[in-house]
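Q: What would this complex look like in 3D?
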Amino acid sequence: MYLNCGANQLTMEESFEKYLSINTGIPENEIHVLTHQILKKDISKGTLLLREGEICSKIFFVEKGLLRIYTIDSNGKEHIIQFSPENWWFSDRGSLYFEEPSDYFVEAIEDSRVVFLEKELFDFGGPNNDLIRSFNDKLLNNHIRQLQKRINLLLSATAEQRYLNFVKIYPDIMLRVPQWMIASYLGITPEGLSRVRRELARHNRS
Amino acid sequence: MYLNCGANQLTMEESFEKYLSINTGIPENEIHVLTHQILKKDISKGTLLLREGEICSKIFFVEKGLLRIYTIDSNGKEHIIQFSPENWWFSDRGSLYFEEPSDYFVEAIEDSRVVFLEKELFDFGGPNNDLIRSFNDKLLNNHIRQLQKRINLLLSATAEQRYLNFVKIYPDIMLRVPQWMIASYLGITPEGLSRVRRELARHNRS
DNA sequence: CGTCGAATTGATGTCATTCAACTACAGTGG
DNA sequence: CCACTGTAGTTGAATGACATCAATTCGACG
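A: Here is my prediction, written as structure tokens for the whole assembly.
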């Protein structure tokens, strides 16, 4: 854990700053006002950033690496709610906004570099406040769109259809995570996914 | 369809105005600046407010009645994404924000009174702009929270557990919609739900 | 009373899970 | 370098949950 102020973290900061500048429309030379005191961490694979029951007090931005957000049910089974690769935001919006204990765990599944942001970032009151808020608005709207599509898939599609959809939308993630995590994301067992893949391969070969 | 300006619509407007005043913190005497030109409609049961393929250009607020938002899959089966009773907002955030064709249908399943809002409402630039935007922010965050919980349930819970959860969270809606719609919301067949209910009744009786 | 959609019920089928065995492979320590 | 270990992935057989299909029943409404 460190504050981003050393020379060797410069490239890291640039990455997040660039992202923010491009997406909010705030000129690069004004971005540092927002980001000069931002907390960044190198997170090693397997580290938990949030546990069920804790109150999530940050918004995270993944500069490098890959995180998963998941629940553990009463039988001890994990269910992956979301993956977060590079340039993705994530947070437990419910816990963050309403200050409730979170239902979720967050774990780094690769060595990662993560920016930790206070929720006030999106409402800091400066001259570029509107640009930041608009961008947050866009993030939230997009998130809702994704979640609704996922619900629709879970309601209407078979395991095979959900898998094909996943591969289509997240080809990169698909190559980076073990199969059992994909199964968990899709709501099926690892065995089930293995069979789905076998059938698909059999069909494509003939 | 009418603009809300007649005496007989006064109570209707008051309802929405009160809601907005209470939830945004904007004083009642300033609310009319926002709402004096708002479009309200009486929608009769069965009317579609949005069809798949259309671009959703409004945010809706349900003053009275009950709406459902649903998809129709390739087999012609309906899948209910959400119910919207009194004092609920709804919109296809994806279609609205990104100006894409919607995946969803919206139908009034009771005679309803609905407020039609331009998306600019939440960014009109007036003196209370911040209050309105903050409230919209809260709505979006809450929406995300609900959707994530639903996904978690769909991933981890049995039909029976999902049903019990639905009854617990939406006891009112449960009494107002036919059983097959609840089944559709839960992702099971009407027959399946019927059997779940029978088993629950059998258990509670003994 | 007759009609139509909603709900129930039974018989059967299908998809995905469970459990167990087995393979493949990476990491560890002797 | 090789056995030892643990995790991921695959496969088979049995099971279970829920769907499908068809036949009734129930209940609201003209």
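A: To summarize the key features: Chain A has eight helices and nine strands. Chain A touches chain B at residues 71, 73, 77, 79, 81, 93-94, 96-98, 103-104, 123, 133-134, 136-138, 140-145, 147-152, 154-157, 184, 187 (CB under 8 Å).
Q: Very helpful, thank you.
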